[in-house]
Write a structure and sequence with these properties.
With 331 residues, the protein is an alpha+beta fold. It contains 6 helices and 11 strands. Strands 1, 4, 5, 7, 8, 10 and 11 form a 7-stranded mixed beta sheet that branches. A 4-stranded mixed beta sheet has the order 6-3-2-9, with no helix packed on it. Helix 2 packs antiparallel against helix 3.
Length: 331
């Protein structure tokens, strides 16, 4: 099997994998979310709250300056179930979010007033944005991933008229989902109901973005190798400058959602820029305009880069052979 045929098969395989990955991602986007595991208790005395509380953590994205993950937390309370049935308008419900990572342990308390003017059974309270510290790995974008370990509880005040104390509530069901416009992807989405406490999850970049980055990096490396094999100086300068422009465009596409600068993409692009400039400068100042920087086997050159002189000489030889055969026929 010839080398061009192998290259055609390889290109076809890459294209099929690309299309399959693309449509797989599109199908799974309809159920994007985060699998959770509960394993730690946040408060001392608690009561079971299900099904009186439904909590939703919506991942908004990653702060580019601090690296924190930002969540919007919303809760639905059953106003007919205790202790929420005893709440009065204006009573403060406290949401306590605990970061369980040992190096980044922290507590965040948010207060929101209770109000139900229409006497609905389910009352929704938006606690706003909650930042969460993570171990910083943003330099590896888009191949970075983060572990999130957290817990949360609600504190409901007691009835002053009845002189009852407040109550801590540890919900057992929480739904987490991503609203970050294809930047993050988790393969499973489901509210988790377990007998342990706490939540743990992993947030990673979109697999399509990672596959695209790896594919483009491979293509860029192959083109750098091709630049080394170019013999003509003018051709090398033209294709080298065009390559730098394309490299800059690809870098901007991949880094559009990067959480900081520089990242792995920027370091890789800078390396390829330096290599390209070195190739062009070495070729320009070496004075050896008739030779490439590396020796290419003649068999490979005949396949990928046919020599003009050899093709011309080959055509002249064919012409002479034809003339000789004609003269022999006439004689």
């Amino acid at each position: 099997m010839s080398i061009p045929r192998l290259l055609h098969i390889l290109a076809l395989v890459i294209f099929v994998v690309f299309i399959a990955t693309f449509f797989t991602v599109l199908v799974r986007l309809s159920r994007v979310g985060i699998m959770t595991e509960r394993y730690a208790r946040i408060s001392g005395e608690t009561i079971e709250s299900e099904p009186s509380v439904i909590t939703s953590f919506d991942l908004l994205g990653q702060d580019k300056e601090t690296g924190q993950m930002k969540f919007n937390v919303r809760a639905q309370f059953d106003s007919r179930a205790k202790p929420f049935s005893e709440l009065l308008p204006g009573d403060k419900i406290v949401l306590r979010v605990e970061n369980l990572q040992a190096e980044l342990w922290s507590l965040n308390d948010i207060q929101k007033g209770f109000s139900n003017p229409t006497s609905d059974r389910w009352v929704t309270i938006d606690f706003g944005d909650v930042p969460m510290d993570i171990l910083d790995r943003r330099d590896f974008y888009p191949f970075d991933g983060y572990e999130l370990s957290f817990n949360f509880s609600y504190y409901v005040p007691g009835n002053k008229a009845l002189q009852t104390s407040g109550t801590w509530i540890d919900p057992k069901v929480v739904s987490l989902k991503s609203l970050t416009n294809l930047i993050f992807l988790s393969p499973r989405y489901a509210p988790i109901l377990t007998d342990v406490w706490g939540f743990r999850t992993r947030v990673a970049r979109l697999r399509m973005l990672q596959f695209l980055a790896a594919t483009l990096i491979l293509i860029e490396l192959l083109f750098v190798i091709y630049l080394i094999t170019i013999v003509d100086l003018q051709e090398l300068l033209a294709k080298g400058l065009g390559y730098l422009v394309v490299l800059y465009i690809i870098r901007n596409i991949l880094s559009s959602g990067a959480p900081q600068f520089p990242t792995l993409v920027d370091y890789g692009a800078l390396f390829l820029v330096c290599v390209t400039f070195f190739i062009m400068l070495f070729k320009f100042f070496s004075g050896a305009e008739e030779h490439s920087l590396i020796t290419v086997p003649s068999a490979w050159r005949a396949i990928f880069m046919p020599d003009k002189d050899s093709s011309e000489s080959g055509s002249e030889l064919d012409t002479q052979n034809q003339k000789t055969s004609r003269s022999e026929d006439e004689s």
